[in-house]
Protein 1
Amino acid sequence: MTPTRHDRVVVEGKPVSPGLAVGHAVFHDAADVDVPVFALEEEDVKAEQHRLATALRRAKKQLAEVQATFESEVGKHDAAIFGMQQLLLDDPSFGKGLRRRIAEDLVNAEVAVHDEILQWVQRLSGVHTGGDRDPAADLRDVGLRLLRVLSGRPSSSGPVAKGGTEERYILVTEELLPSDTASLDRKLLAGIVTSSGGAASHAAILARGLGIPAVTGVDVARLPARGGRWVVDGNAGHVIVNPSDEDVAAAAERGRSFARLLQGFEKETRGVARTRDGAPVELLLNVENWEEVPRRVLTDLGGIGLYRTEFLYMARPHFPSEQEQVDHYVGALERMDGGTITFRTIDVGGDKPLPYLKTPHEPNPVLGWRGLRLSLEWPDLLYSQLRALLRASAHGKLRILLPMVTMVEEFRAAREIVLSIQSDLRAAGKPFDEGLELGAMVEVPALALACGPLAAEADFVSIGTNDLSQYALAVDRNNARVADLYQPLNPGVLSLIRHVVDACAQEGTPVSVCGEMAGDPEAVLLLLGMGIHAMSMSPYHVPIVRQVVAAVTRDEARAVFESAVALGTTTAIRTWVRSELLRLVPGLDPWLRVRG
């Protein structure tokens, strides 16, 4: 049932920026610019192309101004969300396509922009999945900006605070584009609610950079417009429309407690992470693009445990050249200032297609042609990336991680390609790191159960608990109907992880965890108990995980794990682990309560 204006309604969504906020809802509908259509004569083409060129220059200037403004507020890294649009406006093929439409179709510049953007968006359809950044949003925003310039309208029509008052407000919108962010009254912006966009969307990046709670995945169209006061819970991922006074008071107190807690964690857990009995635990970051990483989080960290290189491919309309890849990887290494980056080779296919890589339709893409399976059947793609990574290794510390390995034979095939490239680079006199390490992700249950041969040959192993859990549980974690069954603390999943840890320990192979379990304090306690001492997570979870690590000894964590797996049921395990976690780390109680 669609809620009325005065109903109290709790709406579930997906958290993308932590914290709690209370404010009056302000709905923003992105207003499309009218596209005038008129036919040209041959003699009009040159003048119309000149008008287009002028609009492109003005749009670039506007983008530079917006980016500079945001750099002063949220820093250079978060402001780099506008870089994709700059790349598109500078792309020769984009400008050529616009000029061609004017000349061949004899249409005005507005029509050329509309049709060209539409074609590019269609090429990228299906690329946006889950939390991945949506490249099509950049395209739509560039088109809107160009149409506004051509029509002489302001560069954005974003929302402002309600009625010019000093009330804090919740921005509610289907999609928040970069152009809209420029006109936000960010001093009064309390929270953001969107229908689309994941953890790497523009709205999420802006929210995290400014410390604003945000929830996505909400069906905004069915909510009451101008719905009065709202509560946004960026920890649990829900929104309360028309909350009671008790809801508001509770949210305000939880918000203050959460802010104090995080501030305390950041102060208390600086430096290298160690258990209470002195064992080092390597805390690393999962990174898709550098916009996600606040500069302060990189301090004292050993490096990047999972760098998802597919973003480099998905954020452009064509395959990056080898040199473009080298430049990208070297740039990342320079920003790490000596820290190690584990670059995962491209993981596309299945539910993460590239618009310019044609793959056959699959009835079950998650179990289909993806990851290393795809790369080995497209050796030119894998060869180009591995060669670029090897060349970049001369400029900093990096490791290469292969995704979606099903059997050790696949790892051997990829290693032979690496050896071949190394031989070619030596012959050509091109430097690279002779000691570069090649690792494999364990995400397939069958490989986890028989991990010994892989552990004997790989330089390191990384456990991808997200896919390992959903494959073991036969649960699509993005399917709301079965999402409750996605329980990584299921005894079967824990047993699989234990198999991998034991196999790696027997071979002396380093093993880490790079899935969501690495950021869950309850799971972290169990991972420590299994013998995991390297975990890669999102930046937001680092201070909490540091707190858990510093509060327990290895023997305590081991005892909790052994007792947990003996219980036999997921519910019993989670209840036991939470009680033990609060006993060992009582300071986490407020965090667990606001997290839900």
Protein 2
Amino acid sequence: MFSEYDVIVVGAGHAGCEAAAAAANLGSKTLLVTMNMQTIAQMSCNPAMGGIAKGQIVREIDAMGGYSGIVTDLSTIQFRMLNRSKGPAMWSPRAQNDRMLFSLKWREMLEQTQNLDFYQDMVKGLLLKDGHCKGVVTGLGHEIKAKSVILTNGTFLNGIVHIGEKNFGGGRMAEKAATGITEQLVSSGFESDRLKTGTPPRIDGRSLDYTKMEEQPGDDEIVGFSFLDVEKPKKQRSCWITYTSQKVHDILKTGFDRSPMFAGRIDGVGPRYCPSIEDKINRFAERERHQLFIEPEGWNTVEIYVNGFSTSLPEETQYEAIRNIVGFENVKMFRPGYAIEYDFFPPTQLKYTLETKLIQNLFFAGQINGTTGYEEAACQGLMAGINAHQKTKNLEPLILKRSDAYIGVLIDDLISKGTQEPYRMFTSRAEFRTLLRQDNADLRLTELSYRLGLASQERMNKVVEKRSSVEQIKVALKDFAVEPEEVNSYFTSINSSLITEKQKAQKILLRPDVELEDFATALPRLRQALKNFSRDALEQASIQVKYDVYIEKEKELVQRMSQLEELEIPETFDYKKISSLGNEAREKLTRIKPRTLGQASRISGINPSDVQILMVFMGR
């Protein structure tokens, strides 16, 4: 029934979909196995993509030829560029999406992908032999052979759903858990643990009074995520903001004695940066209210997602509390919020390719590695799909450095430091964030992916054109002279100091209160000189001119740091023989097996003197 595949991907969430698309587009014969073909790329929690640092990841996935950016743009119902008031290193795109349309577009794109087959069944085990993964075993008893297997099981491994004192097996509400894989891997020597995540109640939007809430419209212009020319919606749906109150908190507290989290029925650690509402009012008792975002689930549905009200309290407590929120007085609830507890495998057990250290040709991606969020999962899937293909074809692996991409930061953090709570990406995690902006993801990554064979010729052509345009604009700004009488009225309007003699446009653009688009609008000669360039190229040139000093400083820092990254440590290096290393350092270095001295330096518990000792023993 089944021929042998190059790559089998287990699970069709965000990680699995990107993994399958990447492997298949690179030329591997790929099989995507999922328990339910109707829930491919399901947005299990909030119907949104992007956000702080997460938006940068989606743009990086898109720049490399992944599908997440395209699907997001095709299903967007609202778009906002967050942090516009800060520097461009902090700008982060975020889209509210149509939940059903998002899943539909993902399935359509996957079904149009060559080399990709589908099969609906549960994978209950792996075919393991002599330290290699040879395929999978399904719930129906099929043995499907493959040269590489990627596990992207999400929250399904021994998943348990909790609502108050009720609990039952499940990977999501109304979907059964996956069993067998954890037990097999643990018996093979893997370490596993438990994590928790949660979701809020879903509400009937017809029962809400929006006149009592603050409207949150989208941006006037939808920038979007994909660097391709994907058609954007002509209209947008608003979100809304309301707040909890002390009365809401008091009602919620009445259910604490039946909370699975406080009663000890949940062992897994929940996400620090997306806590449940009961956790918020417990940890931040001094706060009288918490902000809630009222988010539509799509264009043609009345279902509402109550962002900020994740909970696993009893249903009656949830309902009583939520109807005391302003605007929710007559609320009708579609379904209660719940928590889900699931198995994960600490990611220090992985190589940088996301292949496991214990079993060759077995890759992990997504929440199985302890991350939270669609974006974090999707980028791991992309990298696992690429590297599974590369391994299968005996090609060089693709490893992104911390200075290359947020994707590189995420994978390095997971493997070097591990995680004891669901890992979420933030701009603060990236020490080179001035270089890793959302606006230049294509300039950073498309050529690399194109050489690999993943990014298309169309993407590469756009990058070449953009680079050329940016350089032309920078030359034009450097040569363009501005007379005081042309520009002083503009300076007066923005409360900026006037000029008394001719100045170059490039120098004027260095002023923090001057933006190129407004500057060109106020100066017809300049607007005429720049009229043939795209908005994207103009923005990129403006950023490069304004932040040139900071960008160059960061590049110098990358260069200095790269010296440690280039010093590779042999896989057979025996740390136990170095008596001058402390016990903790020897134990962690032996367990994690860092690939380079740079990675070794970032392992928790490894100090600079340990790195110096390693350099001496390596003859450096």
Protein 3
Amino acid sequence: MNCEILAPAGDEQTAYTALNAGADAIYLGLTRFSARESAANFDGDALSRVTRYAHLLGAKVYVALNTLVKDSETDAFFAAVREAWERGADAILMQDIFLGKLVKEKYPEVVLHLSTQGGCCNVYGAEVAKDYGFSRVVLARETPIAEIGRISKVIETEVFVQGALCTCFSGQCYMSSFAGNNSGNRGRCKQPCRKKYTIDRAGFEEPAYALSTSDLCVGERIGELVSASVFSFKIEGRMRRPEYVAAAVRYVRSCLGGEGTAALSDLKRAYNRGNYTEGLAFGQKKGFLSRKTQGHIGEEVGTISFRMGKPFCISTFVLRQGDGFKILREGAEVCGAAFSEQGAGGFFLRAGARLLQGDIVCVTTDTAASERILLGERRRKISLTVKMYAGKQPEIVCGAFVSVGGETLERARSAPLGAEQIAECFRKTDGLPFFPEVRVETDGVFLPKSVLNALRRDFYEAYARFLDPVRTLPPKTFEEPHLPPAERGRTAVISEQREDADILILKPRDYASLPEGGKGVYLYLPPLFTGEDEALVGPALGRFEGIYCEGYYGITLAKKYGVKLFAGTGFNLTNRFAVRGVLDAGAEYFALSKEISAEEQRALCTEGAFALSDGAVKVMDLCYCPFEKSCKTCDKRERYTLKDEDGRKFPLRRYRMNGCRFEVYNCAPLSDGGGAARLFDRTLTVGGPPTRGHAVRSML
């Protein structure tokens, strides 16, 4: 089967665990520019050790340099790319497609994968990535299965099949940044989506994990992804423990073999949030959100009854010291629990709260399962042919690699080396992770044992260098492009209705009923845009001067329909290379990232540049129904209020494009008049338009 199981590695131990569990490739981050800044991550020496081990096993290592890069950081970023490649990386994952294009032009040998943060969800985004030198795209988790098949015909695809899900469209979540000054696009997400919220709709008024998704587990539906020609099956979890990663690798492997059920138990006990969801590729199903529980709930092993007035778990589970449990009631977590003593048909528990008859007991720490999962050492099967003929130099052949000894062999006069003696010597691999099958050809030669051992050591050292060769990239200069200053200021307004402005960006409530466009009117297109969406809005695009698009796919889409492109804030433009890149891509106008300061915006100000200056700030795109598709009882309101435990109120907007989608806006708008806006405990300095530049006002 021509596919790849790709596992996460947040630290060196987990990297070795994943490889020993059978991962075909691992992905990891360096100490800078990693979208998981809280992971241990890797310095250069650790990366070299891991890539060597992986390459000796025939596996690959992908390095994630997938955060947004500010103008002041580009030199360090290019240096990190160069170091990662020279240290053995097999591919570099990047979010900024324009920086990727530049890297590929300077270093054609570097393999680039577009991170899921790049938001590729349709063939247009895939075409842009391919044109810019990327060889693979990591698809947005919201990409429908039909779209996945179409994209796989354009470029190699990588799809998440296991692990945590972001509630917001990848690369477009700004909630942690605006509400807590920790940018997810910079690797510092504090996961506000995992907090409790209320929504002002009947049945949703009580505090719940209203935005917290269950963990993804595609399971045996992975066969449909195989049929869609997906190459790489990705496991999320650079913050997870080694036993979870190992269990996930083995589970995905078993699913590809059609035998996933047995391995699912170990996976649940390692980590299970919300009893899993198949995700959005197959359409939203019940259980996509984990409204009642947020953390690890493990696997059910029994129920509570009472014996001698003490809580007793009726179960066949075999306990060990160190096992841990969690109690659930009506799907919600009650408390943790610990083993007290064994009893017939189960065991007694100690708990931190009063338990009730029928409560569910889940094991969250199974020490025996963890030990079993972590057992085993992977070795690579290799086939050697050792040729030792009198009058010739010894020769060892392993596939395309040939090693020749330095001395001419002599025929033995009395005690020739036997074939089994030679084979036994070469079965020793000097600590390298090989499992050699040795074939010997000889006509009876003599060789001292010390020389034979040296011949073996030299072969394995040379073969290891063959599998993990030294790489070098010549130092090159990335000259910063000159950006001429903007000559005049203009205003663009994002609105649901017509407004007086130089440029109107029309954001419909229902894309099935588009109004007339006209000169100066751009149609807003969201980050998720599928073939069905194109069929809905495509015929009307000619009525507008252009499109305001929140994803890279707009570059190709605008050209197809012959309209102008206004690259939206979803392009996440944070440096002058990206600004130059979007202009070269044909954008008439572009909006700078809403996560950079006013000073940083001024440095990027050029003709066509806009910055969000006042009004509502969108912080999340939800490509699912937060009301769990309760359509029969839906009040179909366009606006709701999402309130957190601190009383902060976040507007929740509904719009329709082949079904309902939702957007979350920040709890406070940017200030009018271009001044900096005070957002609770921080000062957000994206409030004013750049000097002599343009401003975008959100009226939503």
